[in-house]
Amino acid sequence: MSASVAATDSHDRHDRLKDLVEEVFNEYITNEMPIHLLHITEDGEKIRFRLVDRDFVKAHFKEKRVPDNIHAEFAEEMLADGEEREDRIRERVKKELKYAILSHRWLPGNQEPLYHQMLKEPKEVPDGPGWEKLHRFCHTAKVVQNCEFAWSDTCCINKTSSSELDESIRSMFRWYRNSHVCIASLSETADLMALRLQEKGGNGNKAVDAWFERGWTLQELLAPLQIKFYGKNWDPLIQGSTNDRDSKVIMEKISALTDIHTDDLESFTPGIDRVPEKMLWASRRHTSRTEDLAYSLIGIFDISLMIVYGEGNRAFFRLMEEVIKRYDKWDVFLWSGRCSRYNAALPYAPCSYAGGCIQTLRNACVLAASYEYGDRRFALTNHGLEIWVLVLEVDVEEISEESPESRCISFKEDCFRVKVRHIGPEPSKRNWAIGVLDYAVDGKDGYIDRFREYSAFLLSSNKDASIDLPATAKWKKETTKEVVRIHKSSDHVQKRLSLLYL
């Protein structure tokens, strides 16, 4: 190869690399960073911040020659074109484009600074607890975490723009994941000792900080790769630590308060798996808007959902629809209590999973992963939930009324007995059955045995219905206060599986 050809080839490689760095740089800011950020500057001992958009961020880092520096760094390496080089460039870009992100509980009333109040620049801090919190956050981001940019959900989202609100909610998990650090403000916790005293259901100084009971803070806890907890006086709970995920003391305490395993607290991967366990995490959390019970779980399950405020609880039904499209394990039905108004086989809200013991749900997740148990092809159809179950008809032994809308019913079958707390109007002229979900599969049959317990639906049918009515139309699911469980059969029970539409 002649020297001129080699020089031309080298020049072309450098041009391609420069174009690639520029493309990755622009793409990262456009798709992986928040729409608006706070740009933080120091004026003597004062902290100032102003709201900026993505164009400002691009211009700011280009002025600091970030793309040029990354190009020069990679030009010295002899990496071939391909995905590996692009991924390494993207990681390098992310490292340079740092921003801190706030996780907190909103103050009541109109105390938080809002988007429209940030449009005057540069912004000095007015009086008020919300502005004081924002100033403390920005000071911590700039001085402690060395971040020039920061994001807070109170003032960095233009909620008058439906498209911006929609993108922000859909992207929220990713924005927290991509942050340099999440600064978590525990406004009801003085210090680490106060955190260690907190207990689920506790009162007084044992009461759990409200941060652990809000819907949105679940993903804010799980998404960031680095998180730093600060007490109500803005002192870090752990001194000297750059990432509190490395603190065994904090992670074990948060695990006890939230039922989230320490493995997930230390490194969480979003996706549609272990659905009942993840729903349990959300079951004791609250949101101001009903729809946010669903929207706050989008990132945790890694699904896409249209944002439609005003639809109320239908948002959670749509979330469950999306979950069931991609989840094929029967343990998704291990819920109890109030059912969805749109389908009796689906739960009303995450709190429907609260009746499950965390260890039971974890064990069920392991069992459900096997193809040897239960139906893996269930689906929502225009006839309802289509699912194969093992239907075992039972007789009523005893009914004990608890209230006009609740009663304890004892059922018997030749090989087992089961007690169920039934919810709804007093049943009359009903046939009853247990629809086993996690039966063992034997060809077209299902069976249960005496070696373990089983989970089931409580089913009923009208005694006056035609005897020729097929099982698909005969049975309906009844509502129960707890998940129905068969605590070991006295013998092997096997029969042909039934296809139901519930």
Tell me the structural class.
alpha+beta
Q: Between the first and last Cα atoms, what is the distance in angstroms?
A: 73 Å
Low-confidence stretches: none
Helix content: 25-40%
Rg from C-alpha positions? 28 Å
Mean pLDDT across the residues is 89
Determine the strand fraction and express it as a percent band. Answer: 15-25%
Q: What is the count of β-strands? A: 19
Main sheet characteristics: 10 strands, antiparallel
Determine the number of helices (DSSP H or I, runs of at least 4 residues): 16
Describe this structure in words.
The mean pLDDT is 89. Helix 3 (66-75) runs antiparallel to helix 4 (83-96). This protein has helices at 3-32, 54-63, 66-75, 83-96, 129-144, 162-178, 192-197, 216-222, 248-258, 262-266, 275-283, 292-295, 298-301, 314-326, 358-368, 471-474, and strands at 36-43, 46-53, 100-103, 149-151, 181-185, 227-230, 379-381, 384-403, 406-413, 416-423, 430-436, 440-442, 445-448, 454-462, 476-477, 479-480, 484-486, 493-496, 498-501. The longest helix is centred in the N-terminal third of the chain and has 30 residues, at 3-32. The protein is an alpha+beta fold.
